[in-house]
Amino acid sequence: MINDLVQDGIRELVNIASANASTALSEMTGLLITVSVPELRIVNIYDFYAEFADTMEDIVYGSIVRFQDGLEGYLLIFMDKKSMEEVVGRLLELLGGEASKELALDTIKEVFNIFSSSYVTAIYNFLNIYATHTPPTVTEDFLGSILNTALGLASFNTGSDVILTVKVDLKIQKDDNVLGTNFWMLHLMTNKDIEVISQAIMSL
Predict the structure, then answer these.
(1) What is the dihedral of CA 147, 78, 132, 21, to 10 degrees?
(2) Which domains are seen in the chain, by residue range?
(3) pTM above 0.85?
């Protein structure tokens, strides 16, 4: 069981890491991107999956990033199609590029890469835990399919149906207009991740 001190530490860690990532994305796009307070839960994978029942058939852009070396969990990032088109359109406008599908996918991949890299770097700086991650592979698919893949990987690699999830929502704004709110980041932590991060937090 994770004690209250460690839970607070994980929330603060994710808050700092996600804020760093959203700042990097804001600087890249010129859009105002704000991050919600992290929601931390220990939950059964099947119960967690069921919470998305009403949106399983929504088309989203998603990326599953696996931590390596010091950590072994997964970072799942997904954004609804409308929000992603707004961000990609903004970036292509800044870069002076034409909106070909290939260039759009490359741009989406770069968005996710900057976000995940900034997140991992913040973890390293905060806890001095060395960790790398796999390059993000962008998929355009039903939300249900992407969640099924991510949660299946987490279950397979932990040998458990219970995971620690940390969810953060991002709001994307341009001037006074909200471009999209469905940019989610889920950090799926394994038992090893919890142990490593807990030890680092307790030693601070």
Answers:
(1) -150
(2) 4-202 (3.40.1550.10)
(3) no
